[in-house]
Amino acid sequence: MEKTFAIIKPDAVERNLIGKILERIESNGFKIAAMKKAQLTPSQAKGFYYVHKERPFFGSLTESMCSGPVVLLVLEKENAIPAWRELMGATNPEDAAAGTIRKDFAVNIEQNSTHGSDSAENAAFEMSYFFSETEILS
Ligand code: ATP
Ligand code: MG
Q1: What is the average pLDDT value for the chain, to the nearest integer?
Q2: Hey, which residues does 38 pair with through a beta bridge?
Q3: Tell me, what's the pLDDT at 81?
Q4: Of 72, 71, 52, which is closest to residue 62 (Cα–Cα)?
């Protein structure tokens, strides 16, 4: 079983989409190993998205991640990392496949409703950034 880290972003929480997104997660065979609601601080968001610090959208991305509460998740499934990215769809909802979360719920390329780790190394970093080991229940 592989674990990945996911976020339901402020744009989705604000529009009451937590339940709809969790329903897709569970009905696609993921187990929710950890979950909490949080209000990110600017320094937490900047540390989390550190890899993007040179990108032109870094300021606006970190600001929008702090614009309201998020839901932080650890998801578990076989091949969870690619499986969750597939269920989310492409970064830009205009490019996302039919039936994906971002196609159905994202507002635009930045406010794209969910986050998902892109590698095992990043998944380990991101899970430990927000959860202690005792909070992750496999
Ligand atoms: P995430 O890491 O959130 O799962 P991703 O891996 O599909 O998304 P990244 O390239 O890692 O995409 O970008 C991280 C986040 O930065 C995106 O989810 C989106 O919110 C924002 N972002 C990416 N590209 C752009 C852009 N061109 N303009 C504005 N925001 C962007
Ligand atoms: Mg990414």
Answers
A1: 98
A2: 70
A3: 98
A4: 52
